[in-house]
Amino acid sequence: MSHARATAPSPGPRHLAFSDIEWHEGHERVTAGIDFVRRAVSEWQVGRETLGGDEEQAVDVLLVAAELLSNAERHGGGATAIDLEPRSGVLRLTVTDASPLPPRPVRPHRPERTGGHGLHIIDCLSAAWGWVSCRSGKAVWAELSADSLQAR
Length: 152
Known about the structure:
By secondary structure, this protein is α+β, with helices and mostly antiparallel strands. Helices cover 32% and strands 26% of the residues. Keywords: Kinase, Serine/threonine-protein kinase, Transferase.
């Protein structure tokens, strides 16, 4: 059974959703989510230099995905869905969890502190990020530069 399903078929990158993630447990759920994002980044050639990107873009997407998934696991009972939506030059990554509570960045950020760096990392690497309430809890999203996703 495939965990990814295209919701808007097109000749180029398409929206992907990983809704079977809730079948995984604990840290396994984070790993499964990162693997899903890694496959999409590879398939869509995010960061490929010949398409105008750079390798750091792919690494940034994976790091933000890891932070969103870890936060969902730690504070929201675990991710219930992951959505990847490519737009011209931008990749929107959304992680949904069951908690209605908003993400709360630790302010002020102190690098010497143990823990509490996830939202700071997301803020530094993303062009924009935020959250919305949804029927099943909340969805936290981040938009990252992905030059290789320019309209083709």
